[in-house]
Amino acid sequence: MNVNANDHPERRKLLTIVSESAIEAMLVRDIERLGAHGYTITDARGKGTRGVRNAGWDASSNIRIEVVCDAATANAIGQHLKATYYDNYAMIMFSHDVDVLRPDKF
Amino acid sequence: MSSLDPIILFFLLGLVAGLLRSELRLPAAIYEFVSILLLLSIGLKGGIELARQPLLTLLPDMAAALALSFLLPLPAFAVLRRLGKLSRADAASIAAHYGSVSVGTFAVAAAAFNHRGLAFEAHMPLLLVLMEVPAILVGIGLARGLFSKSASGKPPTHWASVAHEVFLGKGIVLLLGGLLIGWAAGPDGIASIKPLFFDLFKGFLAIFLLEMGLITAAQAPALRRYGLFLAAFAIGMPLLSALVGTATGALLGLSVGGTAMLATLCASASYIAVPAAMRISVPEANPTLSLAASLGVSFPFNIVIGIPLYIALAKALYAYLGR
Fold first, then answer.
1. Is A59 within 8 Å of B275 when comparing Cβ atoms?
2. Which residue of B108, B191, B223, B277 has the fewest CB atoms within a 10 Å radius of its CB?
3. Stated pTM of the model
């Protein structure tokens, strides 16, 4: 069966960004400017190519930003963050399809 | 030398526990709370004393503090570039850390001076605030090549974010806020909150240092990786800065205690305000490098060996000068 976007008006992207809390203010500004209507930030801990980031210290703490938005916005945010921050900051991004209950919000 | 101050033992406990990979860890909120209390206590104490003297007479000291913070990063940068062969960004970032100051080191010094019955000028917290910022600007300038002609092709500096981080960071807001509250309320007004901020100061400092020991221990892997040069720099630079600070203190006519405190301020290296500002303004600099130096080596060196040394230095100089 052919599934197209119109069959899923509630279908959105959940874009998850894990990065350094040092650049939180800059990331949030970029995300809002690129059209996201909202975001959720949580403190995060973990390990990656830039070593253990255990949040025990301001300078080594991580955040996880979650943004629910349409595919075009998610793509724009992803491209922009990749170009701006990947070189110098600890950052990973991934996205899922999600179904939202109140499509008008996103 | 008198018996080792117990607060230093708390630091060593944290350091050893951290090196042995103990599970001990202070909850982040507690660490945050304790550092807020320390910042406010230092501010309040300075503010009360400032209320007693006209601000104008302090202008030479304030100007000297600003100048020191502007100038100290320059020799640091030269050494890191020439001898250390570090990249421009890394050298500039580390230099900024060493031009700026560490409130933790100041707090330990204040306690150590009290322990020895050595008085120091009451406006030192004001100098502490003043010395925090200029080095950051110099660091950004050095990294961006403002002083050479190679600024093109670099990403733009987010000046608004940097200014926000620098002037509205926890350290400056609480220190300045405490100074103003202490200054406005005066000694009588502060009496009601004195038990929390002054009587318990050393207890909070002990807990703060326990956590600092753990954080310092966490720098060990990075230090092993970056090796001897960085460790040598992290000890040599504070010594050089302390000499400059001692000479400046003597020229300004500060007391023995004040001179030793100024030397301590010069010798201390930032590990809160500057890392945050550098991360935003000079992203290509490796933050592990500067933290390993300032937190892993200079902070423990200063509080265990440096402070008694700077006191002895000031005393020796004043004995020689016959003051």
1. yes
2. B191
3. 0.85
